[in-house]
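Note to self: keep these together.
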Amino acid sequence: MAKGYSARRGFSNGSGQMLKQQQMQQQIMKMQEDMQKAQQEVEEKTFSASVGGGVVSAEVNGKKEVTNITIKPEAVDPEDVEMLQDLIISAVNEALRQAEEAMDGKTNETNALVQKYGEVLDEPLTAEINGHTVSVKALLRDKNTLRVLYDVDNAKGMEPNDLVWDTGAFYLRAADNSGDKRLYIASNAQVGPCYGYAIGSWATRNAVSEGDVLSCYVDIPLTQTATDTRTLYICDLTNHKASAHVKVMLPDMAEAVTLNVKKTIALKGGHWFHYDMTEEEAEQYPDATFDIEEVRIEPLAVSVIGKNHGSLPLGGTSRYDVQSRVKLFRADGTELTYGWDGEFYQGFYGRVSKYSGQSALRVNTYNLIDPEAVAWVEIDGERFEVE
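Structure:
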C-alpha cells in the first residue's frame, strides 16, 4: 500500500513553536472576526423573491425575518384561497433560501478556506465599470490559477457572467449584427476572457441577482512570470465599451497535499475515451493504460500525475479517463466531491514539462477543497492513506 506525504511546512521546536502557536491563535481570532463581519453584512441585506408571474412577492432580511409581503389584486380570488396561500409560502421559502445561501456561501467559503489557504484583504481593491463598483475582497492561488473573490454593487438584475476578466488589456466587439452582446469577439486577451460565477451552490452559479450586492468569484490562469503582481482587466458583456482594471499582489501559493501512489488503470477505448462513450464506440479503439504515480490535492484543483501507454502520443490522455475513478474521502468515510458538480470539463491535461515522461491531468473545482480534510484516496476501489 502506498503511503502519502504532506507538502506542508515542517514542525519547529522551542520558541519557534510558541511563536507559531501565537500566530495560529491570531489567525483564528481574525477568522472569527471576519466571519462575524460577514454574518453582519448578510444580516443587513434584503432578499426578495416573486412567484406567479410577480403577483406575490416576499422580502426577508439576513436574519431570516420576513419584512414585507406584496400581493397584487389579481392574485386574490375568494374562491381559490388555497392557491394564494401556496404562492405566499413559495415566495417566502425562496427568499429564505437566498438568505441562507448568502450566509453559508459567504461565511464558509470566503472566511474559512480562503482565510486558511489564501488572503482576505484588509481593504477591498475597487474598480468602477458601467455603473458598478467591483470590490476585490479575497485572493486564493495555486500553481496554475488565481481565484479572485469580489462583490459587485447595484447588481439587481445582473448575471454573474456579465463581467469577464483577463490578464491582458483586451476589448470586445460584436460578433455579428444580431444585437446579442453575448455573441462577441475578444481581442488582445491573454488567458480568457474568464467568466465570473456566483458564490454559493452549483445550481445558482449563473442566477440573476435579486439583491443589490452580487458576490462572485473568477478563476484566472496564471502564466509563468517572475513578477508578484498582476493587472486584471475587466469588460462588461452588456456594454462592450465599458472596461476597468485592478492591480493585485499575488498571495502565497496554497500548499498541496501530495500522495505518492503506484496504480495502473486500464483505459477502455484508449485515449479517445470520453465519459459517456458507448461500448460500440470503445470497440473501435485499442485499450490503453495509465500509470498513476501521484495525486495532488489543492484547494482549487485535483491533479493526477503519471505516464500513459497506448496509441496516442505522450500527453494525449484526457482527464475524463482518470478523474472519475479517483475519489477523495474524509476521516468519517464521507466522500469529498470535486470538479464541477461531479463533472470534470474544467481543467488542464498535458505534459508536466517538455521533456518529462509524465502527464498531468488537472481538474478545477467549483467549490473549494480543504486538502487537510482528505483522509484517503480511493482509485478503482483500492484505498491509499494520506498521512
